[in-house]
Write a structure and sequence with these properties.
Strand order of the largest sheet: 1-2-3-5-4-6-7-8-9
CATH class: Alpha Beta
CATH architecture: 3-Layer(aba) Sandwich
Radius of gyration: 19 Å
Number of domains: 1
Number of helices: 11
Largest sheet: 9 strands, mixed
Order of helices and strands: HEEEEHEHHEHEHHHEHEHH
């Protein structure tokens, strides 16, 4: 495996990292990447209130009940609310949770919800664009920016904050296992999920899907055709990020950090990166290399099997195969079930030949 820089196992002064000193190195990684790439995160609210709006009468043929909550956050500057929808298995509990914030896209459809619930999990969803519109012209007039108009955080930080507040809410419900919450999202939602998992230790399993640049894909190692920082300018989506990241237009490989920092910040909690070989834009070889680099940290912390990757055939989508991989990973880690799938198999035998 080719070396990935900066080295996760060395402090900034060049000395070697030990398990006893990991928290110090973790602080270095966080300070290097979170403020610069994402502009930091929104502040925590003074209070988060979880208000039940609707609970449907469960129908046996569906196998779950449908609950809708308002998640209401309070600041000195005002209030912000969004909806959290849950499909809860009928019998037993408390249950692990799959939390998806891509309610604006509909990947977490009825078929996926049913698969999730049948495996003994709650299927939870919200719309991250309630926290900040995914609109380059109007985003500063929406969501959290209404309360913090001068804020430095990009939209990804606002969306990640929505996952954190959803966990505030889920943790108050007696049918939820608060220590077994998995989060998942696709593309820009995958970037959001990786950031959310790296900045909240309550998240037990983080699953970015097809997340690419600014997500699981490395900046220094990109396959031909992969997304680059300049693409965010040309698409108008540079507002997802912080101003420090934007300053590196045309200079991806010169960034003072790389995305494996986020993988390491999640350790030793579970992390599954899911990709597709044909999703060139999202740089699956770079994501694979980032995961492989972080394995050393997971080993240092005594959890070498808590990181994995699932790379399917096909293109840029959050497919049923991707969700099946996540549910298998949850089966092994949350439900104690035997799983045949290998989550650390060698995929790209000659990375250097694939990377431009």
């Amino acid at each position: 495996m080719m070396p990935i820089e900066p080295n996760l196992m060395q402090f900034e002064d060049g000395t070697e990292v030990t398990a006893a000193a990991w928290e110090k190195r973790r602080a270095e990684l966080r300070e290097a990447i979170i403020p610069h790439e994402y502009g930091g995160l929104p502040p925590s609210p003074l209070a988060t209130n979880t208000i039940l709006l609707c609970r449907s009468v469960a129908r046996t043929e569906e196998g779950f009940g449908h609950h809708t909550y308002e998640v209401r956050t309070e600041f000195a500057e005002g209030e912000l609310s969004f909806l959290l929808n849950l499909r809860v298995p009928l019998d037993g509990g408390p249950f692990p949770v799959v939390l998806n914030g891509d309610g604006c896209w509909g990947y977490f459809n009825d078929e996926i919800v049913l698969r999730t619930v049948r495996r003994g999990n709650i299927a939870a969803s919200f719309n991250r664009t309630a926290l900040a519109a995914d609109n380059r012209d109007l985003y500063r007039e929406t969501g959290l920016y209404r309360l913090f108009p001068e804020a430095s955080f990009g939209a990804l930080g606002a969306w990640a904050w929505g996952y954190h507040r959803s966990i505030d809410a889920l943790s108050t419900l007696d049918f939820v296992r608060p220590d077994q919450i998995a989060i998942t999202g696709h593309s820009r939602g995958g970037k959001t999920v990786l950031l959310a998992g790296a900045t909240d230790d309550r998240i037990a399993l983080t699953n970015p899907n097809g997340s690419g640049t600014g997500g699981s894909g490395l900046n220094r190692l990109k396959s031909s055709g992969a997304e680059v920082v300049d693409d965010f300018f040309r698409s108008g989506n540079i507002f997802w990020f912080g101003s420090g990241f934007a300053e590196y237009r045309h200079r991806d490989r010169e960034l003072p950090y790389d995305q494996h920092f986020l993988h390491a910040l999640i350790a030793p909690r579970a992390l599954l990166a899911s990709e597709a070989h044909g999703d060139v834009w999202a740089n699956p070889p770079g994501s694979y290399a980032a995961c492989r680099a972080a394995v050393s940290v997971y080993g240092l912390l005594g959890a070498p099997r808590n990181i994995g990757w699932a790379i399917r055939e096909g293109g840029h989508a959050h497919s049923s195969e991707d969700f099946d991989a996540l549910l298998d990973f949850m089966d092994a880690r949350f439900h104690g079930r035997e799983v045949v799938r290998e989550f650390q198999r060698e995929v790209y035998c000659d990375l250097e030949s694939l990377l431009s």
